[in-house]
Amino acid sequence: MKCSQCDKSAITNLQGHPLCVEHAAMMAQVQNIQNDNIRLLMAQIEDDENSINAMFGLPPKRPMQIPAHQVIHAPQTTVNDYSIKIDRSTVGVLNTGIVSTINASVSLIQATNQEHAEQIKNLIEAVSNSKKLSQEEKKDSIEQISYLLSQIPVLTTQRNTSVIRTIFTSIEKTLATSVDVYTLWKILQPIIATYLNS
């Protein structure tokens, strides 16, 4: 049986969708990232509740249990730090969730292709630091690239292909005004399209 996301052999089945080892590992990483975010939020809530309980002489609350990490072994690679660094003063008000989404997506891609992860990092930082693009153009482009990257682990049948095509066109048009950024985009665009089967 073939993977529903590529032509490789499937090793597991997720909600009726067969997945190869690489796509299964990506899905597991997405779940792990979501669980880590839940753990952080729950820890903050528990700290706040324990502080309130302590004021009234009540015992601390018992920690809530979050599912343990899923472990699916993907091909071994050397781990490098591809965290995106964006100067918010040059981009304007950018939702912190956008940066988190980009970093999570880059981490997933890094597991299978470090060169692609580095190219995405370079593109985002080039957009952020561009002198030719306005703050609004930078913000819009980064948010649109973030959306495309967020769709990589989504099952093909659940992606909105018309939205994805529209975003590709919009990014192309916006980045064309900055030669250096546009050059990076033209290298990366077919790579992202391949991940999205677009």
Q: Please write the string of helix (H) and strand (E) elements.
A: EEHHHHHHH
| Sequence of strands across the biggest β-sheet | 1-2
Low-confidence stretches: 71-79
Please tell me the overall pLDDT: 78
- Using the alpha-carbon principal axes, give the shape: flat
Total tally of structural domains: 2
**Count of alpha/pi helices:** 7
Q: Would you tell me the structural class of the helices and strands?
A: mainly alpha
- Approximate strand percentage: under 5%
CA-based gyration radius: 20 Å
Largest sheet: 2 strands, antiparallel
N- to C-terminal separation? Answer: 22 Å
Q: Roughly what percent helix?
A: 55-70%
- Number of E-state strands: 2
Task: Summarize this entry quickly.
By secondary structure, the chain is mainly α. The protein has helices spanning 21-55, 88-91, 96-110, 114-129, 135-150, 161-175, 179-195; strands at residues 12-14, 17-19.
